[in-house]
Amino acid sequence: MKKIIIIKYGELSTKKDNKNFFISKLKNNIEVTLENINHNTYYDFGRMFIETDDFDEVIKHLENVFGIQELLVGYTSNNLEIDDIKNKVLDLVSSKSFNTFKVVTKRSNKNYPINSMEISKVVGGHLLKNISDIKVDVHNPELTVNIEIRNEEVLFYFEGIKGLGGYPVGTLGKGLLMLSGGIDSPVAGYLTIKRGVKLEAIYFESPPHTSDAAKDKVLKLARVLAKYNTEVKVHVINFTEIQETILKNIPHEYLITIMRRMMYRISAIIANENKCNILVNGESIGQVASQTLTSMRAINEVVKMPVIRPVACFDKLEIIDISKKIGTYDISTLPFEDCCTVFVPKHPVINPSPALCEEYEALIPYKELIYKAIKGHTTIKVGIKEENKFSDLL
Ligand code: ATP
Ligand code: MG
């Protein structure tokens, strides 16, 4: 009998035609995640298996991988004889303390001469005969013994650990996350990665108004997201000239609206250049003046590609809960200004007019400024492979 990790696939098992694509993507993502741990992975359409000596470490890493419904530490045996199965189960449960139990059997090997119900009955009877003071409880057992009869092996396992669910990263293509140092955008990123979208990120900095520490904070957040995304490429845009030009030439109540229209325009271009199909951001309806419905509309209209706002309908406290769960909260709440907070006007417009936005934008050479900002942008890759290079960031 060999101890092994068994992976039950998440929602992908319903994707009939694409199953192979989804599963092989999951395998690739797992290989990247487990790159530094000794292991061996193999799979079929029903399950994935990992052999390793370092179970705790592998499980810890797999808990960050989307596309896994359940993780189980189980046992595999090549002896399909029912008597051997009975004894192996007795062996495995002998170290456990329980009063009630049930046996659940699955049989993907349809040539096996005994059906699932019968196997459960025989094994259950064997346990009752050999262990005193236990009884069967099919509704609420303290111990569930799972047996799976496959073509060339039998699997045994007990309770598992819930996986993250979702789709394997990359199965749904790519998106560009507008990543600020705040609480909302990393959560928005996490929720998008969960649906199988591989993210790149874009960050607007305004030196000297924003510090290197503010940028490091964003890179740290990207690094947390990289645990789920396998890696994150962060495109850093110098936004200073655009912001200063807006500040000098445009009525102050429209500063944020126009600034965000510029961010959207730049993001859409960077997204296109990097084959990202959607923009993702942390806007939440009503949270600030630039997130009223009229503001969102006036800002959104400068781009054609879909803008996904995963936290649009969440309360701040709900967003905070997720950020704590995924490990971004403590980083997001570090005290560094981002480029929006530095330029916040006293009375931002709550219902901006798109026509006025265009009128004001005509006052500045924004196309040239955007072109210049994009031309000068830098890209930083964070992730598992950069562990050593960026270890100073965390
Ligand atoms: P967050 O907590 O995510 O920073 P926020 O409540 O501060 O959000 P805003 O500053 O209005 O809200 O920003 C809304 C969204 O716009 C952010 O969630 C993020 O997606 C994007 N964004 C804001 N500032 C930047 C920036 N400097 N670089 C990249 N994206 C940004
Ligand atoms: Mg912000």
Q: Gyration radius, to the nearest Å?
A: 27 Å
Helix proportion range: 25-40%
Note the run of SSEs as H and E: EHEEHEHEHEEEEEHEHEHHEHEHHHHHE
| Alpha-beta content class | alpha/beta
What CATH architecture of the largest domain do you see? Answer: 3-Layer(aba) Sandwich
Overview of the molecule:
The chain is an alpha/beta fold and 394 residues long. The protein has two domains: 161 residues, VC0802-like (2-Layer Sandwich), CATH 3.30.2130.30; 209 residues, HUPs (Rossmann fold, 3-Layer(aba) Sandwich), CATH 3.40.50.620. The chain is 39% helix and 22% strand. β11, α6 and β12 form a beta-alpha-beta unit. α3 crosses α4 and α5 crosses α10. The radius of gyration is 27 Å and the shape is elongated. The C terminus is likely disordered. The structure holds adenosine-5'-triphosphate and magnesium ion (MG). Adenosine-5'-triphosphate binds next to α5, β11 and α12. The site of adenosine-5'-triphosphate has 19 residues, from α5, β11 and α12.
Report a brief summary of the structure.
The protein is an alpha/beta fold. It has helices spanning about 20-35, 55-60, 80-95, 115-130, 185-195, 210-230, 240-250, 255-275, 295-300, 315-325, 330, 340, 355-360, 365-375, and strands at about 1-10, 40-45, 45-50, 70-75, 100-105, 135, 145-150, 155, 160-165, 175-180, 200-205, 230-240, 280, 305-310, 380-385.
